[in-house]
Amino acid sequence: MPALEQLKNTIFNLSNEHDFEQAALTIFQIQAKNNSVYGQFVQNLGVEPKNVTQIADIPFLPIQFFKTKEIKTGTWQPEITFTSSGTTGATISQHQVKELALYKQSFITAFKRFYGEPSAYCILALLPAYLERTGSSLVLMADELIKQSSKSQSGFYLNDYLNLIETLKQLAQNNTPTLLLGVSFALLDVAEMLEGFNYPNLIVMETGGMKGRRKELIREELHAILMQAFGTISIHSEYGMTELLSQAYSKGKGLYQSPPWMKISTRDTTDPLSMVAPGATGGLNVIDLANLYSCSFIATEDLGRVYGDGSFEVLGRFDQSDIRGCNLMVL
Predict the structure, then answer these.
(1) What spatial distance separates the first Cα and last Cα of the chain, rounded to whole Å?
(2) Packed helices 184-191 and 161-173: angle between N→C axes, nearest 10 degrees
């Protein structure tokens, strides 16, 4: 579709709310017409696409549809399919991706926006639960960031905690800017092995998820343990999921910022078609314009608050949601 091809070149350069809204409305019209699942969903709600003239009128597709349907705008074969982790026996989500380059452009552009060039960091990935399966978008992202790093120690450390700790000590000695990206339970494992470690130039970024390996902790407790162990003043977090091609980042206290092509809003927990005021708790809806060829308008199973400046925090999940290991801790 020519219009989507055109948008590929513009969505990552949006500079204001008006441009975002215009792009979102254009994408909505295309997806409502050319995405059979989303189009049927919109129709079943009684929404006439031609009458949708503002973002507030756009319906959000429940994320559960990625577990049972092919969410595709247009007809094409996926270059890659991302899959969620899920518990044993649970139905997993599948996100078919038409162009892997689009995903790479999204996460690299966002990373540079929040952290600068990946080449400036030594990037250490501690993602055992994700490396033990296929189809992880997080592993692919970490792998690309590692490739773009200029530091020889960059890489995946899987369960090799002793080697990771020795590498961290060497990097700390040289005061090398370092990003340690890890799943929560693995970061806690390493934290318990550290003594007297102090590395203010280290960014520890947790992706959430105990995956049944440890007792769930509230964010404040987890971050306090990690700050004490790694000698940092804050713990960063990444908010992403299988069904999205974009990520938001928190540089501390669990308060996330989105890149300009991704926006979060909150819906009423008892009426999914009604929105709640800024600062009130609700279900998180995501507009991810990078989801050009799937669906850009997703109603997640996450609970949170969105504030007037667009920042947001994640408070947990709906009780009936399947537990997935990607990005949340139960509060």
Answers:
(1) 43
(2) 70
Report in angstroms the alpha-carbon separations of 281 from 175, 268, 309, 314: 41, 8, 16, 9
Higher local confidence (pLDDT), 131 or 93: 93
CA angle 8, 92, 313 (to 5 degrees): 65
Tokens standing for residue 169: 């000590």
pLDDT per residue as tens digits for the range 253-291:
999 999 999 999 999 999 999 999 999 999 999 999 999
| Burial of residue 81, with CB atoms counted within 10 A of its CB: 0-12 exposed, 13-18 middle, 19 or more buried | middle
What percent of the chain lies above the pLDDT cut of 70?
Answer: 93
| Residue of 275, 278, 246 whose CA lies nearest to 262 | 246
Q: CA neighbours within 13 Å on the CB side: how many for 149? A: 23
Q: How far is CA 248 from CA 19, 74, 89, 149, 240, in A?
A: 20, 27, 29, 21, 7
Amino acid identity at 91: T
Who's near 86: CB < 8 A, 6+ residues apart?
Answer: 92, 93, 322, 324, 325
Residue 188 vs residues 193, 206, 208, 210, 212: alpha-carbon distances, Å = 9, 10, 11, 10, 13
Question: What SS3 class is residue 215?
Answer: coil
Rg of the chain in Å (alpha carbons): 20
Contact assessment for residue 19 and residue 62, using Cβ atoms and an 8 Å cutoff: no
CA distance 304 to 315: 5
* pLDDT (tens digit per residue) in 138-196: 999 999 999 999 999 999 998 889 999 999 999 999 999 999 999 999 999 999 999 88
Give the Cβ contact number of residue 92 at 10 Å.
16
